[in-house]
Write a sequence for this structure.
């Protein structure tokens, strides 16, 4: 988003998730909100059936004079960046998404993750991208390509968009959109409560739930949802990254139950049924989302601090759950406990989590009996 764009800047574009349909994106001064413009043959364009417009011009005129349910009134059309962030790197990569690695320039190392290094880079000397370099041998290219085919079609404003890959030689490169502020975990830890407070924390959680609700609707499982796998962009935009990669990543010599370093212990994010019997599902992602809520509210504290993975598993089986953090409102803790229901079916859907967090009322307090969730 260009700095020239002010509140009410808008864009009408083809929908990212539903080809052939139109979406309206509106900048409310802080974040960009997206609406689906519905069309009915012979009738026209509308957001809600009570106002149908014969032309898009009439549609824009109406919402310029009256917000009528939109976050703000429409003002000026969005000014596009000189180098727009593309959905695909070029027309060609829309289908042929294997690109020539020589078209990439690696500029600055951004970090080092489970899979290898991540670089800020430029594609064709013009387009800023993030380049994930995979440690040789960490994945079977065939498995990865199969997964990447699916990942490429997952398009949502709250999911990191996969642009292209370089898989013909090692190291495999995964090219994605660049997120200027890096991982949510570090972002939270660096802030530690100075700028980020409950409304921002709830907004982060709602945005992640929105991306996850989309994955849920596409019957896709993340398998490694955690603050380290959420990225932070400009204007308080949060997006889910690395969905599906855990399935194709070969874990070498790593015992998830007793990994040596507490920091990279995925077991603390993983639902008991997924650890015990490898039953990963969208409901095991919901469990992880509960842990992510804990990370958000505690500014990136380690869950089950001081405990080893095997101890966590034993205690969870006996009904133990992370206690309510000191600054965590009851209502938010109640949502966490719902995510940690021992019975996967008893956990909420991401769609429900999304609206609960979007509609979260900061002022209301509610009493909950945490013991009700202990077996
Ligand atoms: P990962 O391998 O995904 O764990 O990434 C390691 C680190 O690289 C993260 O903690 C981020 O700080 C950074 N990073 C990963 N992906 C991106 C991206 N798309 N944009 C910006 N920074 C990223």
């Amino acid at each position: 988003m260009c700095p020239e764009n002010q509140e009410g800047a808008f864009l009408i574009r083809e929908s990212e998730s539903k080809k052939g349909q139109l979406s309206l994106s509106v900048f409310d001064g802080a974040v960009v909100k997206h609406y689906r413009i519905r069309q009915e043959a012979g009738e026209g364009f509308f957001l809600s059936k009570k106002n149908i417009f014969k032309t898009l011009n009439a549609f824009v005129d109406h919402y310029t004079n009256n917000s009528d349910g939109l976050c703000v009134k429409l003002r000026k059309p969005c000014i596009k960046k000189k180098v727009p962030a593309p959905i695909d790197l070029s027309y060609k990569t829309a289908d042929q998404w294997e690109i020539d690695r020589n078209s990439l320039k690696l500029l600055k190392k951004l970090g080092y993750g489970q899979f290898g290094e991540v670089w800020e880079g430029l594609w064709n000397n013009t387009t800023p991208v993030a380049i994930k370099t995979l440690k040789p041998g960490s994945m079977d290219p065939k498995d990865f390509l199969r997964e990447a085919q699916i990942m490429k079609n997952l398009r949502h404003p709250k999911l990191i968009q996969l642009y292209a890959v370089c898989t013909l030689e090692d190291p495999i490169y995964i090219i994605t959109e660049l997120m200027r502020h890096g991982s949510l975990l570090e972002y939270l830890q660096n802030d530690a409560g100075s700028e980020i407070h409950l409304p921002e924390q709830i907004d982060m959680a709602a945005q992640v739930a929105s991306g996850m609700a989309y994955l849920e609707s596409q019957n896709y499982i993340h398998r490694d949802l955690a603050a380290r796998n959420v990225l932070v962009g400009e204007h308080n935009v949060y997006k889910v990254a690395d969905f599906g990669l855990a399935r194709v990543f070969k874990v070498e010599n790593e015992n998830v139950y007793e990994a040596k370093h507490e920091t990279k212990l995925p077991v603390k994010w993983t639902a008991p049924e997924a650890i015990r019997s490898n039953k990963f599902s969208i409901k095991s992602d919901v469990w992880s989302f509960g842990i992510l809520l804990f990370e958000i509210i505690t500014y990136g504290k380690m869950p089950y601090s001081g405990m080893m993975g095997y101890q966590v598993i034993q205690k969870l089986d006996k009904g133990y759950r992370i206690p309510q953090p000191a600054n965590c409102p009851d209502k938010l803790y109640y949502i966490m406990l719902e995510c940690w229901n021992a019975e996967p079916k008893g956990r909420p859907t991401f769609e429900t989590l999304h609206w609960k967090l979007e509609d979260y009322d900061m002022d209301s307090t509610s009493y909950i009996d945490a013991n009700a969730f202990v077996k």
Summary: The longest strand covers residues 32-40. The chain has three domains: 10-65, 91-176, 184-373.
